[in-house]
Design goal:
This protein is α/β, with parallel strands linked by helices. It is about 35% helix and about 20% strand. The chain binds 2-aminohexanedioic acid (UN1).
């Protein structure tokens, strides 16, 4: 594609907008229309090292800025996200493809997260505890750690960077941000807003380029003690391995294979609404997407027919056009992967109820559109019920009772989100306890996490860390325990015992 006239973007390192040292570039295009969005620097190890150096220098003063003052910049950033919400939303539809309402939700999630973390500037609570000794005081405080390597995906191109960058900054860390190569223009606008809000040079840097060069260098750089990655299981494992020799703190937010359970006593129409939203929203490209639906045998038939009917009414198209329900998927290789799972499902003997094809009518062939796809009579062990597809494909599985449903839900390697539709409070509480996922919804689909509760999953979804809410602070700070002895004499813990009045 010709690049004449397209906007050229740069890296932001140490407060300067700079080209890649290689002089090489890559392009970002609109997945609905194929139009060019912009040209971006294809950065090298050297560019990454410069950004780390800038972040390391900036850290020495940023860590000493009082947290409420760091937070004032975040309040300004949040306000600016509000003011630029429409612009960011439209750019997101253009660059990432999700429909307007969902793109607005993505920006809103960043607004919420940035305000929330700005509020932490005046909290960031530690603990004070009594000492076992007289005339001794003790407390724990949160201290920043250093430079964060923030490696983010394309599916929530504004929200997810905010999940990592807002807590890092309020905690006093500095950041080198490596956004996905499919959504670099959004990442760049995100960083510009921090610059405009008055963030000092070097505190937030952006380096565009591939994961195997920029991402890997961040993970292997000795001066980057914290890595937060949202990506695939495979890249997560590689990241953990590469960071292990440095004993880095590594937060991993990886895949999902999320299930909605619909019990026989459920409100089936409500369940259908929840399934449609969770399976086909963002064209199924959410870590929290519902790619399995486990259905009680009594409601299986009515649910299946209502779901198929509703899925067939969903309108595919460019997310800026009116009345479009489902946008494109991110790129050609995603389209091919999604379609390969349709073939896998058919090969495994699952019944293709609707969809299962690339949509090309009315100009859709200019982009990467896949028809909402539902498989019926799926066995929980089939690959389409086990592997993350990351597209608009879901699998209906029958279950006779709650035990079988929970067993099937838990039978995958991932553990991000889960949901149950039931009117029986006992079944709901069983599910809350026994569904082995980081998030469980009752009478709602598997998507819709809010910013003030922990976000993350069990098993192969991650490595035990969580983002968002208070949990994020645990990743972006290091606890320090402080003991102050004001007795004026040597008091030895566990040895010089205070004489107990109880003795
Ligand atoms: C993701 O897919 O990685 O709960 C994030 C949700 C959104 C966030 C999803 N608020 O689905």
């Amino acid at each position: 594609m010709a690049t004449t006239g397209a906007k050229t973007y740069r890296n932001y390192i140490g407060g300067e907008w700079v080209d890649a040292t290689s002089g090489e570039t890559f392009e970002s295009t609109n997945p609905a229309t194929g139009e060019l969005i912009g040209v971006f620097p294809k950065s090298t190890v050297e560019d990454t090292d410069r950004a780390v150096e800038a972040a390391k220098d900036a850290y020495e003063s940023w860590r000493l800025v009082p947290a409420p003052k760091r937070a004032e910049i975040l309040f300004r950033v949040a306000q600016s996200f509000v003011e630029h919400k429409d612009e960011l939303t439209e750019l997101m539809v253009q660059e990432m493809g999700k429909v307007r309402a969902e793109a607005g939700g993505d920006v809103q999630e960043a607004i919420d997260m940035t305000y929330y973390m700005a509020g932490e500037g005046r909290r960031m609570f530690g603990q004070t505890t009594p000492s076992e000794m007289p005339d001794k005081f003790q407390m724990s405080v949160r201290l920043p750690v250093g430079v964060v390597g923030a490696i983010t995906p394309w599916n929530f191109p504004i929200a997810i960077p905010s999940w990592k960058i807002a807590p890092a900054l309020v905690c006093g860390d500095t950041v080198v941000f490596k956004p996905a190569t499919d959504t670099p223009a959004l990442a760049e606008r995100f960083v510009e807003i921090f610059e405009e809000a008055g963030l000092p040079p070097g505190v937030l840097n952006i380096v565009h380029g591939g994961g195997s060069v920029v991402g890997e260098r961040l993970v292997k750089h000795p001066d980057v003690p914290l890595i937060s990655l949202t990506g695939s299981r495979e890249v997560g494992i590689k990241t953990a391995e590469n960071g292990a020799p440095f004993l880095k703190h590594i937060h991993l937010e990886l895949g999902g294979k999320n299930a909605i359970i619909v019990m026989d006593d459920a409100d089936v129409d409500l369940a259908v609404d929840g399934i449609l939203w969770s399976a086909f929203g963002t064209s199924g490209q959410r870590c929290t997407a519902a790619s399995r639906v486990i259905v009680g045998s009594k409601v299986y038939e009515p649910l299946q027919s209502k779901l198929v009917e509703r899925a067939e009414q969903l309108k595919l198209g460019y997310g800026l056009d009116e009345d479009v329900d489902v946008g494109p998927v991110i790129n050609r290789s995603a389209l091919e992967k999604i379609h390969s799972y349709t073939e896998i499902g058919q090969g495994e003997g699952a019944k293709l109820l609707t969809g299962g094809e690339i949509a090309t009518e009315n100009g859709l062939d200019k982009g990467f559109f896949y028809r909402p796809t539902i498989f019926g009579d799926v066995d929980p062990e089939m690959r389409i019920a086990q592997e993350e597809i990351f597209g608009p494909t879901t699998a209906l599985i029958r279950a006779t009772d709650i035990d079988e449903a929970i067993r099937a839900a838990n039978s995958v390697e991932f553990g991000l989100s889960s949901s149950i539709f039931t009117r029986d409070v006992n079944k709901a509480f069983r599910a809350m306890r026994d569904l082995n996922t980081g998030i469980t919804y009752i009478n709602a689909g598997t998507t819709g996490a809010e910013v003030h509760l922990p976000f993350g999953g069990t098993k192969a979804t991650g490595n035990g860390h969580r983002e968002a809410g208070q949990a994020a602070l645990d990743f972006y700070t290091e606890w320090k325990s402080i003991y102050v002895d004001y007795s004026g004499k040597l008091q030895r813990a566990q040895i010089d015992e205070f004489e107990s009045p109880a003795r």
